[in-house]
Amino acid sequence: MAMKTYAIAAIPGDGIGPEVVDAGVEVLEAVAKRDGGFAVRVDRFDWGGDYYKKHGRMMPENGRDLIRKHDAILFGSAGHPDIPDHITLWGLRLAICQPFDQYANVRPTRVLPGITSPLRAVNGHELDWVIVRENSEGEYAGVGGRVHRGSPLEAATDVAMFTRAGVERIMRFAFRLARSRPRKFLTVVTKSNAQRHAMVMWDEIAAQIAAEFPDVKWDKMLVDAMTMRMVMRPQTLDTIVATNLHADILSDLAAALAGSLGIAPTANLNPERAFPSMFEPIHGSAFDIMGKGIANPIGTFWSSVMMLEHLGEPKAAARLMRGIEMVTADRRFHTPDLGGVARTADVTTAVLDAIHGANV
Ligand code: ATP
User: Fold this and answer.
1) Structure confidence by residue, pLDDT tens digits, 25-81
2) Cβ atoms within 10 A of the Cβ of 249, count?
3) Does ligand 1 have an atom closer than 6 angstroms to the CB of 284?
């Protein structure tokens, strides 16, 4: 039988994006080789801020067609000090996420071995969450407008738009994910006390979908109270589902509680697999450390683990995750964001060694 080859579209983007994506590609290729059962073919697309400066757009007009047939996308970061954030965001990341219907954004959060959480006495057992973010509508649906610019009558709206189909599919995805985890427990984040329309529908649909999953326990939290629970009682949470805006904020809090922005991964999934899904570290372009060789690549490595799981290579995914944990457990391989002096290349080499090691 011919060996399976996965086509990966790598979009390194801006800032430290290329540094961490190069490291991620090296690790992916190594784990594929070590596993032996599959190979990866990586095509690189140099889209982002520099591309914008040359061409006036973040990616070519037919950009999506160039990556539509790939099995997965590995994304670095888009953002440039000279280009407004809404252009870099809507011009590349969202220009891929939305048409490719990557409606489930999944963010695992764990305190990895060797990493210190700012929460006293919290370890990997007490903080082990997966946040599911609705990634296609809600507050970031892009509905709204601005009129009478510059005049005292100027007005602007951003309308949060929720559809029954959109809420049903994200709830079903979240309940299914909760069911696949040992605790089978889902927390639905809401704000239905203050927002009386869409958030009330959100709650109703959650209850309705819950009935399809009698083996999953669930509860409901107002988003403001949720921030307190994440800090004060992290062990009472497992799988979490929230709207686009709420989950955006909560997942940054989660990343900070887990020790560093440089570690946290995310997957933008099209669960139906009609389009490729996209995997990326949650950090941004971090221009302050660009080119210094000290970016933490762990967030990209962990994103690669999620990619391997999605591609259906659980053995390789588990091997890479064990390699990552062996490396974070060793302080010699901590980059400056974790209080260490290691460089991107040191961490990458250590993970490659771990992958090749007999005990991983
Ligand atoms: P963007 O505008 O693209 O979101 P940003 O620089 O405003 O980018 P982040 O990139 O998320 O925001 O980073 C915030 C800070 O965290 C940076 O100044 C950087 O020093 C640090 N940081 C982020 N990611 C990493 C990483 N992978 N390794 C080390 N430090 C990081």
Assistant:
1) 999 999 999 987 899 999 999 999 999 999 999 999 999 999 999 999 999 999 888
2) 13
3) yes
C-beta 337 within 6 A of ligand 1: yes
- Dihedral of the CA atoms 109, 110, 115, 120 (nearest 10)? 100
Instruction: Report pLDDT digits (tens) over 317-353.
Output: 999 999 999 999 999 999 999 999 999 999 999 999 9
Between CA 50 and CA 126 the distance in angstroms is: 42
Ligand 1 centroid–CA 249 distance in Å is: 16
The rounded Å distance from CA 290 to ligand 1 centre is 10
290 lines ligand 1 (CB under 6 A): no
CATH class as words, domain 1-102+261-360? alpha beta
User: Is 323 a pocket residue for ligand 1 (Cβ < 6 Å)?
Assistant: no
Q: Lowest mean pLDDT of 38-52, 84-98, 114-128, 285-299, name the range.
A: 114-128
Determine whether the shortest distance from the Cβ of 138 to ligand 1 is under 6 A. Answer: no
Q: Which residues of the chain are in CATH 3.40.718.10 domains?
A: 1-102+261-360, 117-258
The response to whether residue 297 sits with its C-beta less than 6 Å from ligand 1 reads no
Question: Which CATH architecture is the domain 117-258 placed in?
Answer: 3-Layer(aba) Sandwich (3.40)
For residue 102, the tally of other CB atoms under 10 A from its CB is 23
Is 260 near ligand 1, meaning CB less than 6 Å away?
A: no
Q: Could you please report the per-residue DSSP string of 135-198?
A: -SSEEEEEEEEEESTTSTT-EEEEEEE--HHHHHHHHHHHHHHHHHSTT-EEEEEE-TTT--SH
Beta-ladder partners of 10: 44, 74
Nearest CA to ligand 1 atom 14: 286
